[in-house]
Structures are given as C-alpha cells and as structure tokens.
Amino acid sequence: SKARRCIMEGRIHELGPLMNQNQTLLEDIGVSSPELQVLIETACIAGASGAKLSGAGLGGNMIAVVDPDAAGLVEIALREAGAVRTLRTEVST
C-alpha cells in the first residue's frame, strides 16, 4: 500500500494526507463517531499532518501522525478535547 511504502521509505510526511483520505472514506461508510471526529479534527488543528480512527470503528481510538516538535501541543489539545489517554510512538526507518 502507499502508506506502508511511505513508512518503509521514511517518507512519514506523506503519510498524514493518506490517513486523512482514509478517514473520509471511513466517515462515508458510517464507522466513525462524533466523539472521534472531534479528536481527529483537534489533532489536525493542533499540528498533526493526518489522523484517523483506529480499529474496527465505533470505538474510541484514533491515531495521528505528528512531527516530534508538535507532539506535546497535540497531546495537550487532545486531552482538552476529551481524550482520556495519549500514547507516543516514534517511527524510525
């Protein structure tokens, strides 16, 4: 997939827009929720290059691609928007 190639080739900056496109498709088929939408939009406004729900949908998990320099701001914004927990994972190639 395009996303996998982006990760494997270290082109993480290209992953965000792909995640946003996928999230739009997930919304169209009705597996997102208003609560997740708020968190996804909040992450993007706070500096994530992309975000989408994670898992089978209708749950409470989302994932975002965030530059390390913006991670703290995105975490704060997510908590203020109602996120219960945030977790950082570094992707290295």
List keywords for this structure.
93 residues; mainly alpha; Alpha-Beta Plaits; two-stranded antiparallel sheet; 2 strands
Set down the secondary structure blueprint:
Blueprint (H helix, E strand, L loop, with lengths): L1 H7 L6 H14 L5 H13 L3 E4 L8 E4 L5 H10 L13
Antiparallel strand pairs: 1-2
Helix pairs in contact: 3-4
Any overview of this molecule?
- With 93 residues, this protein is mainly alpha-helical.
- It has one domain: GHMP kinase, C-terminal domain (Alpha-Beta Plaits, 2-Layer Sandwich), CATH 3.30.70.890.
- Helices cover 47% and strands 9% of the residues.
- The chain has helices spanning 2-8, 15-28, 34-46, 71-80; strands at 50-53, 62-65.
- A two-stranded antiparallel sheet has the order 1-2.
- β1 and β2 form a beta hairpin.
